[in-house]
Backbone:
């Protein structure tokens, strides 16, 4: 009698994921559908250049991209639909999940045609804003802070943008953020009360029970984060906005290997399309926010005012329609 | 084809090279643009005027007709415009972004 292993089903980025490892961070998935399979297996590294003395390595070939984390394992992402996890002996599952739900999923999303940014995003009254920035730039803290003020969380660290004939939209990921202890304290949350992302890492996992966006959200702003004495939004010349988008394209973290298999011309044109269709601005705020909700309220107000330039136009159209109806 | 910048003058025909990809950065295609040199893997930024010139040479065009189009759009003397235009086109040719075709 054949024993069948029950697969774990979860949902993230609009994809039903069938996994042989538990992925408790994800939303419940559809057992009858499987867009992406995550399975344990052997990754053949014989074609990869000789060992380099770094913790992370990456190689790409055709529709395959492999991210290697020494001490954890190799993660082969195939054609946007399969992630093969070749774990090193004794590698803890929390670390495997960090790679699966981070770089591996980002590669799958890229392979599936999304424009993937190193960014965190929230949706405010149906208008999504994304905060672009490198590690420890504060993007997760900002997203978490706005979520606590009642806005819908969309994504943390890996932001997938749909670029098609309609206005660009960000895809809801799964309801978890990874936050540094300092960021948590700024939010008024005690880091000690939350599980570590991994016993050796300082970041904590914040799982959200509510306020998670249910469907793709219209992307209205891309904010490049920077530090300054006062909270404010600065406009950027289009060429600078474009440069920021390229800088925060998620694939850039893998060095130049990924450029061997992607169409660089297409990436360039997509980055241009994103810069053209979504306003890219700079969001400035003090390096260490005060430990109270007033700071996040000020940031919230600043962003809403900036968005108001767009929604103000919608409001005027609605008023006009309203008055036409009244006249009848 | 090796760009021969010595032979660029008003009677030359120029066209954007095939070894590049470009993108408009404003919705109405009236502002800045960027060009990726596919061979070198570096990209260039064009301001509004540079971008409008770039738009004009997506199809083969004589330098003179580009000059006339610019003079119709911008308030500038013919001499200044021609000098600036030839400078930009020479720079683009030197970077492999455009081809020069002489009669």
Residues:
């Amino acid at each position: 009698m054949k024993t069948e292993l029950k697969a774990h089903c979860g949902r993230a980025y609009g994809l039903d994921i069938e996994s042989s490892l538990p992925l408790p961070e994800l939303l419940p998935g559809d057992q009858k559908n499987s867009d992406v399979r995550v399975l344990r297996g052997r990754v053949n590294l014989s074609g990869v250049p000789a060992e380099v003395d770094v913790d992370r390595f990456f190689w790409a070939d055709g529709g395959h991209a492999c991210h290697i984390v020494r001490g954890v394992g190799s993660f082969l992402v195939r054609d946007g639909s399969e992630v093969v996890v070749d774990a090193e002996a004794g590698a803890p599952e929390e670390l495997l999940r960090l790679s699966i739900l981070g770089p591996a999923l980002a590669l799958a999303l890229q392979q599936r045609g999304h424009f993937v940014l190193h960014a965190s995003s929230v949706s405010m009254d149906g208008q999504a804003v994304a905060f672009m920035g490198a590690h420890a730039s504060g993007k997760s803290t900002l997203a978490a802070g706005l979520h606590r003020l009642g806005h819908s969380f969309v994504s943390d660290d890996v932001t997938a943008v749909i670029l098609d004939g309609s206005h660009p939209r960000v895809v809801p990921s799964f309801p978890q953020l990874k936050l540094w202890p300092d960021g948590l304290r700024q939010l008024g949350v005690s880091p000690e009360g939350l599980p570590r992302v991994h016993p050796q890492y300082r970041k904590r996992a914040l799982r959200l029970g509510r306020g998670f966006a249910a469907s793709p959200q219209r992307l209205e702003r891309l904010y490049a984060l920077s530090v300054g004495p006062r909270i404010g939004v600065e406009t950027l010349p289009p060429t600078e906005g474009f440069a920021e988008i390229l800088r925060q394209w998620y694939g850039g973290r893998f060095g130049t290997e990924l450029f061997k298999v992607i169409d660089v011309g297409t990436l360039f044109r997509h980055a241009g399309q994103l810069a053209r269709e979504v306003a890219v601005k700079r969001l400035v705020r003090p390096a260490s926010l005060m430990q109270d909700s007033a700071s996040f309220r000020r940031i919230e107000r600043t962003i809403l005012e900036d968005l108001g330039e767009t929604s103000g136009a919608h409001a005027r159209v609605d008023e006009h329609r309203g008055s036409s109806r009244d006249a009848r | 084809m090796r760009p021969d910048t010595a032979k660029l003058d008003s009677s030359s025909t120029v066209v954007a090279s095939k070894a590049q990809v470009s993108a408009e950065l404003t919705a109405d295609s009236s502002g800045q643009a960027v060009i990726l040199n596919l061979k070198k893997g570096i990209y260039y930024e064009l301001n509004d005027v540079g971008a409008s010139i770039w738009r004009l040479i997506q199809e083969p065009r004589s330098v003179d007709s580009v000059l006339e189009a610019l003079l119709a759009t911008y308030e500038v003397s013919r001499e200044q415009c021609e000098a600036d235009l030839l400078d930009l086109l020479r720079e683009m040719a030197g970077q492999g972004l455009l081809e020069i075709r002489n009669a």
